[in-house]
Design goal:
alpha/beta, Rossmann fold
């Protein structure tokens, strides 16, 4: 039986200070982010979507709203779709005036393979795959949408494709409001596809892991 689970990254967030907001509350979609969410809703319109689930973060919930309205579906919430935990949450990240110039943060940078500054990549992928399996079971023979975040989506794709988990954050193929789709043959993932419904709106720099 063929089932498709789509992982949708949320739209752009209003974040003029450039903070790595992670799991912090109070970060909402920008005006462009709301347009991105509407573009995603149009992309899903006409598809056989029967299940819609979102991360509990405001930006993900807000991205799901136009999809729910377009498809006439309720929005479920799954904690496993949440953003990755990160030591640098609430800080600006980088050299210059960012957190990397402060010695108190250096002990968290010793292992990029795990990574040492946050939730292990493998743990992220496993919780995401478990959430996807539940969405797949709820939508058997149809399609499901799970609204999540860049890093969880990207490491899950890398796990499924058999690639190493550590990577360069700037090389993630997971633009704002992008869709990474996993096709299941019964319980086995047999295909991964990628699309950018928001087009040019999503092609701009953003905070890694947002």
């Amino acid at each position: 039986m063929k089932t498709i689970v789509h992982l949708l990254r949320h739209g752009e967030v209003h974040n003029p200070e450039g903070v790595l907001y992670g799991r912090l509350p109070g970060y909402h979609l920008s005006d462009d982010g709301r347009l991105m969410a509407k573009s995603a809703a149009k992309w899903f319109d006409g598809r056989d979507i029967t299940v819609l689930v979102s991360s509990p973060m405001e930006r993900a919930q807000e991205t799901s709203e136009p999809i729910a309205e377009t498809l006439g579906l309720p929005v479920g919430t799954d904690e496993r779709l949440i953003e990755a935990a990160n030591h640098f949450e609430g800080h600006t990240f980088g050299v210059g005036d960012g957190s990397l110039r402060r010695p108190e943060h250096w002990p968290f940078l010793w292992n990029p393979f795990r990574p040492s500054w946050g939730e292990p990549y493998e743990e992220i992928a496993q919780r995401m795959l478990a959430a996807m399996a539940d969405a797949r079971d709820a939508a058997r023979g149809h399609e499901a949408v799970c609204v999540s975040h860049q890093l969880p989506i990207w490491v899950t794709r890398r796990r499924v494709e058999g690639r190493r988990m550590w990577h360069h954050p700037g090389r993630r193929q997971c633009a704002l409001a992008s869709v990474t789709s996993f096709t299941y043959d019964d319980d086995r993932i047999v295909k991964v596809d990628y699309a950018e419904p928001a087009g040019d709106l999503s092609r701009r720099p953003s905070v890694p892991g947002a």
